[in-house]
């Protein structure tokens, strides 16, 4: 446990001393938190949708809105659109940290002395993984709380605001978020173990954000409705996926190959 | 300080990378407290050997034991017992000297990290720079910090891979003196170096390798084995009669006259020099000085490497 803690602290010291990396890591969460708040600000209140009745809305809205009707349902639908955007934060934020984690040690030639210590592969991967997951999850949670507080101020109907704290959002933010983050980190660390250039690691890792972007587009276009059932299924699938990915990350981390192929 | 118990034993140790055999059937043993040099040209397998013994690479064949633990089977135990200074110092530039050592102290499970950090930073003259980022350090300071890192957990065996490579003469000297101090403490040190003068000065024994073992002995013994012992007789002047007088001794060979000196290979100079000097004086020679021609380890090394080249190209 001491070694994992030391790796996490070391990673943070390295990452956050670099102002550019710090900016890169914090820019997206700030944008994702600010964007929906700006949209809500301009929507003002549900008055903007006055005259919309439940019958005018697509059928899938009904299952999402529950007791909310008409204009309130429309507003809540808009608010919910940003849920998946929030889900992108825990995937993207750790990518910069995790994709650099192993390949960075290769380029700075610190991997050899590190591997010469009694630290195990599992300890290295957990330490480096958590160094990415913890700030990503915390950023997501803080962003969500700011978003909820902003919505509370800007949306006049308390019933709409209270929906931001219903099980759908709670599961999404507090369970699916960390699981997505773990997935992103495992993939990034795996790529980082195999490549010799940090830029390649980051570019390849970036591809794995696309499924989350796909979910967001699916929901925006009405092809997909993010409700409690969907989120629970997503959590279950991610749990299995994370376990499998972590297992593969350990298999991919071949100490000898990493050392002997690196020049 | 050298103990008779071997702390490193290798038996036909081999490492291949695909078709390329980097280390071929290397058999050697290193005694506890010994400073052991691994010499050889680039690509001779020195770093690969060190990496295998440091449990970083798995041998392709043969066996090796370090500090009583078997390489490949008990790697975690070996890593606890050894300290490694790799070819590149491998330090975290954005972290301070103290943070670097604290991190590696945690990796080694050192209980008293703060004390050990202070001890080695003071010993290596870096204590006053402990809060500064390593990125601002000179090459010599980085190398010293990397040595401190390798010693932090008080390892039984210390592997130093090219410890003075790329350092200026002053920094090289400091590092060499520090290694001499460590030798005085009775630590086992495995030193790979291209600096043969350094190896000659620091090592109790050296192994010259080029994929496989070419020679293994104390530097002085290697000199004797390869070149014999040559004595130089400085005379007022030389003549053919004096040379012939020396050639009559059965224990003298390879007699040459250079200016006013006579060089001769003598089997046992301590016992046989008096007889030779008497013969020279009786033959009318005025002996001014007598000394032993000291061959450098570099001469031994070049002789061994030359033999390999000759073998390779089929020369006699």
Can you give a write-up of this model?
The complex is a heterodimer of chains A (263) and B (316). Chain A has one domain (2-261). Chain A is 80% helix and 0% strand. Chain A is built from twelve helices and no strands. The radius of gyration of chain A is 21 Å and the shape is elongated. The mean pLDDT of chain A is 80. Helices cover 38% and strands 28% of the residues of chain B. Chain B is of the alpha/beta class and 316 residues long. Chain B contains eleven helices and 14 strands. Classes of the chains: A mainly alpha (263), B alpha/beta (316). The interface between A and B is medium-sized, with 27 and 32 residues.
Sequence-ordered SSE layout with sheet pairings:
The complex is a heterodimer of chains A (263) and B (316).
Chain A: H1 2-17, H2 19-43, H3 60-65, H4 70-107, H5 111-115, H6 121-154, H7 158-162, H8 167-194, H9 198-207, H10 210-220, H11 228-252, H12 255-261
Chain B: E1 6-17, E2 20-31, E3 35-39, H1 46-53, E4 61-66, E5 69-70, H2 75-81, E6 82-85, H3 97-108, H4 113-123, H5 139-151, E7 157-161, H6 169-184, E8 188-192, H7 196-202, E9 205-210, E10 212-217, H8 219-227, E11 230-235, H9 240-247, E12 252-258, E13 261-266, H10 269-282, E14 287-293, H11 297-312
Parallel strand pairs in B: 3-8, 3-9, 6-7, 7-8
Antiparallel strand pairs in B: 1-2, 1-4, 4-5, 9-10, 11-13, 11-14, 12-13
Helix pairs in contact in B: 3-4, 8-11
